[in-house]
Amino acid sequence: MTAAAEAPELTGQPAATPWDPALAIALTECGVRVEEETVLDDLLTDLEPGSR
Prior knowledge:
Blueprint: H1 2-6, H2 21-30, H3 40-47
């Protein structure tokens, strides 16, 4: 898993992810965290009209 290999190590308790409960579990299993700044372009694209 390339993306997980490049992601920062998970420290502390994972945040709750009520919009996707499996996300916190997956990040815990992989031992990584996702910094919003590193995926900002993807997040903004998801907010664009017609992106879904």
